[in-house]
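Build the 3D complex.
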Amino acid sequence: MSVRSTITSQFQQVAVEQERALSPLSDELKLVQSGLDSLSFAIIVARLEDSLGVDPFNAPETVEFPVTFGDFVRLYENFAK
Amino acid sequence: MRNEGASLWECLSAAGIPTGHLSGAHRQLALRDLAAGSSLGGQLETLRGRTVLIAARDQLTAALALIELDGLARRMILCTPDLPPEHLPGIIATAGADACVVDAATPAPATAGMQVVTATAALVPLDGQRHTSVATEWILLTSGTTGIPKLVLHTLQSLTSALAGAPAPPQPLIWSTFYDIRRYGGLQIFLRALHTGSLVISEATEAVGDFLARAGAGGVTHISGTPSHWRKALMSGAAAQISPVYVRLSGEIADQAVLDSLRATYPRATVAHAFASTEAGVAFEVRDGRAGFPQALLVAANGRIEMRVPEDTLQIRSPGGAQRYLGEGVEAIRQPDGFVDTGDRVELREGRYYFAGRRGGVINVGGQKVHPEEVEAVINTHPWVRMSLVKARRNAITGAIVTADVVLAEQAPGTGARPSEPVLTQQLTEQCKAALAPFKVPAMIRFVPSLAVSAAGKLVRPSA
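Done.
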């Protein structure tokens, strides 16, 4: 599974679990408008660490916090390389 | 600018009529208007000498009540907006509350004989001059090990201890905070704002982007929040709405990533992280942009605040510390020598102390406390669960999330074959969701063959 599809399915799964209405995922979608809350993002980041083996938010180098879904995917794609 | 023994209003008006403002999402109030007006509907004097529950949900309303009642009420109990109503009777009884300030949106607690005052949005003319008759006790609520709030006794003097002796700024500052001002971290900012300028108050129901836009429009220069608040702001796409000169983090461990991101986002700001707790008061502020704090802070005591680290746990002695918990049979806040044990573990590495989590194992999910035992208690009611260990997993978004290790039973009375692990995971999650707040529900459940138990028969808990 690609990084993008792994992330997409985690967003969808966590949205269901947290009973959140997820906006249609596109690269332009602002995370703040995705329908997910901080707790949902926390769970997504932890699960992605398990499935992709990386946690860019906890990396030694400074990361720019992603604003859109596209930023979020690119951040993981860069770290998963 | 603080005068010993003076009330909050007397401090505010000591140098003439105050010029600052308090701004909420829906209204703004000039502090000078309190010289001749009251928000308490002409009933201010009925509250003199009483123990008053500040139960108004609206923050600005509560803020005005605090200013008006300090020096007049015997005690003020600062109710947090998310306080579960079932805790109110216990709080009222423990504090001896005989009066209550509510707003139009807040139901009054149904307690016989309680004087209820409904605060008004518009000020009414003040009957006579404000005058002080008592040193009011400020009671803050903080969640205890059982989830029942503890009542922490402060005075205006202890709450403003960190401000004592600070020179007045050359021009008024405009403060804001992501915190609710009825929590210790927010109350500190509220008091700072009153002493040095104005405050833009956040609104619980307001989207972070809207709040930042309002703070930006209000010209906010100084702003505080927890690292979780700041991560949310950084991810909102609206961080550039404000242009502060001072950014403060407190209430959780500030890691290097969030400090670096704030420095990059706000290049002209001093990014400071502070250590404070409701019980210990404000201990110190670190301005060098690095996580943790220099070891030298321990020895360079400024005479007022002392720190020590016995058994890797930070202890603080400060005039800003609370006096005691209210109630019978409660533990002491201070040790016999006056030090407060913060329960925060620190590790010394190359001349710097780094925070390593809570000794008591309380999990901090975005500033909200989770006691592992209460989650375990819910999990353990499942017929196929033998035991469980709930613990924190470090997380860059909320500081930590809750996870559970579960040991399953081989057999369960009155049931057939054991369900599969995915089915059990779903059942346990549903069970926790039904009984617990969402942030307490384990985000991950792992099935393990056994859990370590100490010689004393207790689950071995991770020390961080």
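Chain B touches chain A at residues 207-209, 228, 231-232, 234-238, 257, 260-261, 264, 365-366, 393-398, 401, 429, 438-439, 443-444 (CB under 8 Å).
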